[in-house]
């Protein structure tokens, strides 16, 4: 008998067909509005789950789901998972790193450019009929080429953003990370390690690419924003909660930084109303990895983790490999 799998939200039909060869699949292709109670009840009836990075799997959920053996996140982020609790319950957690690195870095740099050069403002300016004539000082933006790029979080995506800045735009790249990169990796990125304070004080453009955790909560708050140049921009392609959105909205309104570009938000899909009303912020609905090729690769990696686990007791990208059977 095939193990039972729940797919929490819509995914590509070819991935469902692939999974159906190995599982009895319950595919929620109509994007249900999961309450925690409904999600827990549905999950409790299955041996495995393919999740989208937003469905909660914590101690209380796990206690109600004794059948559950693996949850495979389609996303690289996994702050929806309580990994220590999953380990205690012997439930494997996996995510989908690597396959979205370049696509996410592309979008991060696109968001940086749109923010610095006021692309969204310019679009509204034209659409609203405000453009009556050309003037020398019309919508002046911040320079990108030759400026200083500060990256907080220098994993795969951070390094990919750094290379775009250093090699494509001749930017001086500085970074802050939990640990310093190897000399070879720093050379490849043309990046210099600095303290968080120095980065915030020196960077013309700050890009956030760090994972969310209790330790990284509000990495950027009022105190950090006060350190930044009034001409600086802030781009967040990391996770909601890494930035104190209320403090950022105040800094933007008061002109303490020039602009921000945000793909992620605290409590998304809700967005702080003061951010919605700010003219100097570019907003995107968590789409940094959103090309069909990349999202399909993410879904296939999640599926391959599920298949490998039940077929051979292995996984391609385990977050808690200690629960895997020992060979």
Layout of helices and strands:
Elements: E1 4-7, H1 13-20, E2 24-27, H2 36-43, E3 48-51, H3 59-63, E4 70-73, H4 83-88, E5 92-94, H5 101-116, H6 119-127, E6 148-152, H7 156-169, E7 172-176, H8 183-189, E8 191-193, H9 196-202, E9 205-208, H10 222-227, E10 233-236, H11 245-253, E11 259-262, H12 273-276, E12 281-283, H13 292-312
Helix pairs in contact: 5-7
General shape: globular
Distance between the termini: 24 Å
Rounded to an integer in angstroms, the radius of gyration calculated over CA atoms is 22 Å
* Fourth CATH level, the homologous superfamily of the largest domain: NAD(P)-binding Rossmann-like Domain
Overall structural class, as computed from helix and strand content, comes to: alpha/beta
The strand order across the widest sheet is 8-7-6-9-10-11-12
Which percent band covers the strand fraction?
5-15%
Q: Residue ranges: pLDDT <50 for 5 or more in a row? A: none
What is the overall number of helices? 13
Please, what is the average pLDDT? Answer: 96
Can you tell me about this structure?
- The radius of gyration is 22 Å and the shape is globular.
- It contains 13 helices and 12 strands.
- It has 2 domains: 127 residues, NAD(P)-binding Rossmann-like Domain (Rossmann fold, 3-Layer(aba) Sandwich); 183 residues, 3-Layer(aba) Sandwich (Rossmann fold).
- With 327 residues, the protein is of the alpha/beta class.
């Amino acid at each position: 008998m095939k193990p039972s799998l729940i797919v929490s939200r819509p995914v590509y039909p070819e991935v469902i067909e692939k999974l159906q060869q190995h599982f009895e699949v319950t595919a929620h292709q109509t994007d249900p509005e999961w309450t925690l109670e409904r999600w827990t009840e549905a999950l409790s009836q299955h041996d495995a789950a393919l999740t989208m990075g937003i469905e909660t799997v914590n101690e209380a959920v796990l206690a109600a789901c004794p059948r559950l053996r693996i949850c495979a996140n389609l996303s690289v982020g996994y702050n929806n998972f309580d990994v220590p609790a999953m380990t205690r319950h012997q439930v494997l957690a996996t995510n989908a790193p690597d396959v979205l690195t370049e696509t996410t870095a592309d979008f991060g740099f696109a968001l940086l450019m749109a923010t610095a050069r006021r692309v969204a403002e310019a679009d509204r300016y034209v659409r609203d009929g405000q453009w009556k004539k050309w003037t020398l000082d019309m919508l002046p933006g911040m320079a990108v080429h030759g400026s200083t790029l500060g990256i907080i979080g220098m994993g795969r995506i951070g390094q990919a953003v750094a290379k775009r800045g250093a090699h494509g735009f001749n930017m001086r790249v500085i970074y802050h990370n939990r640990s310093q990169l190897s000399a070879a990796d720093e050379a490849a990125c043309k990046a210099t390690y600095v303290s968080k304070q120095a980065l915030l004080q020196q960077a013309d453009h700050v890009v956030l690419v760090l994972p969310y955790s209790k330790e990284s909560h509000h990495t950027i708050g009022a105190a950090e924003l006060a350190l930044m140049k009034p001409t600086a921009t802030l781009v967040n392609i990391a996770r909601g909660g890494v930035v104190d959105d209320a403090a950022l909205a105040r800094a933007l309104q008061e002109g303490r930084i020039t602009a921000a570009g945000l793909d992620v938000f605290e409590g998304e899909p809700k967005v702080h109303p003061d951010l919605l009303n700010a003219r100097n912020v570019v907003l995107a609905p968590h789409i940094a990895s959103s090309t069909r090729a990349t999202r399909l690769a993410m879904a296939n990696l999640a599926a391959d983790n599920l298949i490998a686990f039940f077929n051979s007791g292995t996984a391609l990208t385990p977050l808690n490999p200690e629960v895997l059977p020992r060979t």
